[in-house]
Design a protein that fits this description.
The complex is a heterodimer of chains A (about 325) and B (about 325).
Chain A lengths: L1 E5 L4 H13 L3 E6 L1 E2 L11 E4 L5 H11 L3 E4 L6 H6 L1 H22 L4 E5 L26 H20 L2 E7 L2 E2 L8 H13 L6 E4 L5 E3 L1 E2 H14 L5 E4 L4 E3 H10 L6 E4 L17 H7 L7 H21 L1
Parallel strand pairs in A: 1-2, 1-5, 2-4, 5-6, 6-7, 7-12, 8-11, 9-14
Antiparallel strand pairs in A: 10-13
Chain B lengths: L2 E5 L4 H12 L3 E6 L18 E4 L5 H11 L3 E4 L6 H6 L1 H22 L4 E7 L8 E2 L12 H20 L3 E6 L2 E2 L8 H13 L6 E3 L5 E2 L2 E2 H12 L6 E4 L5 E2 H11 L8 E3 L17 H7 L7 H19 L3
Parallel strand pairs in B: 1-2, 1-4, 2-3, 4-5, 5-7, 7-12, 8-11, 9-14
Antiparallel strand pairs in B: 10-13
Helix pairs in contact in B: 1-7, 2-4, 4-5, 6-8, 6-10, 8-10
The chains are: A alpha/beta (about 325), B alpha/beta (about 325).
């Protein structure tokens, strides 16, 4: 078996590649875009290609060469905040890459299973009686990023309906863990704390809306769910991936401050307030659980602690240089 | 009249650059090593329009003499020990020519006329084990051969002389660029030459290594224009030059054989002898800065480049074999 991971050097892709190398005997290939340090330790065991997913001919060439049995299409512009600054660019890129992957599979007549990655943000503005959010909850996307993910999700469905393509769609909720880049709430806080500890930032933590509660899942649990769905998921089906547990952003801040090595003050930062925020998000992952037996295994505090350590290591490595 | 000095004028890039500058009305001086055994095939057709002078990047005084005598306005340093496998066998010589040779030329410029504009031929080989995909001017270097290491030195000493002495010194980080004048040891030429021979009945098959190896291939004629553009700006700077696209050796075969009406799969033999295990191909350029600042765009795309090379090899072989 051979798996192709697009966006392999990204936050989720690097964890997925590690997981597959440890838990399967699959060959792992992938496309790479941006800095490659995430995959340095496993690089020699991977077959890597430049990410050229915005050209159909390049995607076809990639699939011809790699002949994957499974495609994990993770590559996307993934920072919601950024999508406000460049809505058309985010939508065009994410939708184009998804369409090219699916169309290339059709054009080449490949028999392979394609995991299409949507997002819990597709549900957007949820109402209290929508909670917990199951897969039948209506979409009310409230960011250009979320709209791009709805479109990707629908492309996955359409290619299944139109061509019988073996697609599995997932809607992962907030995931956290080591290597997540800035632009997401947990690394944004953890990096500031590591910088303060290293004496590179005044002891002042700038925060946005702390009351919002989100469904957080550790990235290592998320990639395990993706693997289980490839093995057991139903063709054409869509699955929520989330822990079913909501945590207030306040809890993230409290945990990190409690584990900081130096005293830190909190300051409200208007730039970190999103144009629209939703008070509570809880994922209903019963469909995923019924299909695969998956439940989250890594406690929230463990994830936060690992992320903080990750940023401390980064700050320390700067010192050595 | 503007005068340009080109080191490495007998090479692929040197010959295209000389043609390009002659068309612009330049006086072109080409530096050649006295002991050089290289052939002059690539500049035969323009030999009466250029001045060839002896000089050596290993000999500081020869560089000073040339600059004093010919007073060039621009110096293009294309000469190097540029063959990667040789750099393993002659690492010290490679460092002398490819790395320290740059310093010698910069020193000569600083001493003779700091107003001379300088172009250093840097290479995507400097990215080696790439740290970032695609590669731009900010991507850290991680060279993987004595040649790559020497080129990194050449790049930084160029930057350093620009910053230390305010020289107009530019480093062009060029990705693979091909042409009918490419050496036969390079895979593009190996394929187009092989295709031409097969088409003419001179050869039965073509032995290649990894067909999945991918490169960012452009046309050398386009790339020398980028070199010149760098020296015509208001400020000196460094630029990545490439197409921003990669193609596999397999596609190269498809295009080259297809162009002469043959099916590549009937002729290409995959030979493990040429196979490098676990080849990692992440070299791909991000040439946005060259596009935006220099207004540079490649004129010849991958297909036309390969077709041009096949045409040239067909003509060459017909001439050689009286066909």
């Amino acid at each position: 078996m051979k798996a192709l991971i697009t966006g392999l050097n990204g936050f989720v892709g690097s964890h997925l590649a590690e997981y597959l190398l440890v838990h399967t005997d699959w060959q792992v290939a992938g496309t790479v875009y941006g800095p490659t340090h995430n995959i340095d330790p496993i690089r020699d065991r991977l077959e890597l290609y430049p990410g050229e997913l915005s050209r159909l001919d390049a995607v076809e060439a990639l699939l011809k060469q790699t002949r994957p049995d499974i495609i994990f299409h993770l590559a996307a512009m993934a920072v919601t905040g950024q999508s406000w600054r460049d809505p058309a660019g985010t939508i065009a890129l994410n939708v184009t890459m998804q369409a090219h992957i699916l169309q290339a599979v059709v054009n080449l007549g490949l028999r392979c299973r394609v995991l299409c990655v949507g997002s819990g943000e597709e549900y957007g503005v949820v109402k209290p009686d929508d909670l917990p959010i199951d897969e039948d909850t209506p979409f009310r996307p409230n960011s250009p990023y979320a709209v791009s993910k709805v479109a990707q999700d629908m492309l996955g469905l359409q290619y299944h309906l139109s061509y019988g393509l073996d697609t599995i769609r997932v809607r992962p909720f907030n995931h956290i863990g080591p290597r997540q880049g800035l632009g997401f709430v947990v690394p944004d806080f953890a990096s500031q704390i590591a910088r303060i500890e290293a004496g590179r930032q005044p002891p002042l933590l700038r925060v946005g809306n702390l009351q919002a509660r989100r469904d957080f899942t550790d990235v290592r649990d998320v990639v395990r769910a993706y693997h289980l769905l490839i093995e057991h998921g139903r063709s054409g089906e869509v699955y929520n991936v989330g822990s079913g547990q909501a945590h207030a952003i306040q809890e993230v801040v409290d945990f990190l401050l409690a584990h900081s090595r130096v005293p830190i003050q909190i300051e409200a930062d208007p730039a970190r307030m999103r144009p629209s925020d939703i008070p509570l998000v809880i994922c209903d992952y019963r469909r995923l659980n019924a299909c695969t037996g998956w439940t989250p295994t890594i406690p929230f505090e463990q994830s936060l602690s690992d992320v903080l350590e990750d940023w401390r290591e980064l700050e320390n490595s700067k010192e050595i240089k | 009249m503007t005068t340009a000095l080109i080191t490495g004028i007998t090479g692929q890039d040197g010959s295209y650059l000389a043609e390009f500058l002659l068309e612009k009305g330049y006086t072109v001086i080409g530096m050649i090593r006295r002991s050089s055994t290289v052939n002059f095939q690539r500049i035969e057709h323009i030999q009466d329009k250029i001045t060839l002078v002896p000089g050596d990047l290993l000999d500081q005084m020869s560089l000073v003499d040339i600059l004093q005598e010919y007073k060039p306005h621009e110096v293009y340093n294309l000469a190097a020990q540029s063959f990667v496998p040789t750099s393993w066998k002659q690492p010290v010589f490679t460092g002398e020519a490819t790395a320290l040779g740059v310093t010698r030329m910069l020193e000569a410029i600083r001493i003779v006329d700091p107003g001379i504009r300088f172009y250093q031929a840097s290479s995507s080989e400097m990215f080696g084990k790439v740290r970032q995909v695609p590669q731009n001017e900010q991507t850290p270097f991680y060279p993987r051969s004595p040649y790559g290491v020497a080129k990194v030195y050449g790049h930084w000493i160029t930057v350093n002389y620009r910053e230390s002495y305010n020289l107009f010194a530019c480093s062009g980080i060029l990705f693979n660029h091909e042409s009918p004048r490419r050496g036969l040891e390079f895979v593009t030429r190996k394929v187009t030459y092989g295709v031409a021979r097969i088409k003419l009945g001179l050869q039965q098959d073509l032995h290649l290594g990894n067909l999945d190896a991918r490169r960012d291939w452009g046309f050398a004629g386009d790339y020398v224009r980028a070199m010149w553009l760098m020296l015509q700006q208001d400020h000196p700077d460094d630029y990545v030059v490439g197409t921003g696209e990669t193609h596999a050796v397999r596609e190269l075969c498809q295009v080259a054989f297809g162009y002469v009406g043959l099916d590549w799969e009937d002729y290409v033999v995959v030979d493990p002898q040429f196979y490098r295990p676990a080849e990692v191909d992440l070299l791909i350029s991000d040439p946005r800065k060259a596009r935006e600042v220099l207004g540079w765009e490649p004129q010849v795309d991958f297909r036309h480049l390969i077709e041009m090379m096949v045409d040239a090899d067909l003509a060459l072989l017909k001439r050689e074999n009286n066909l």
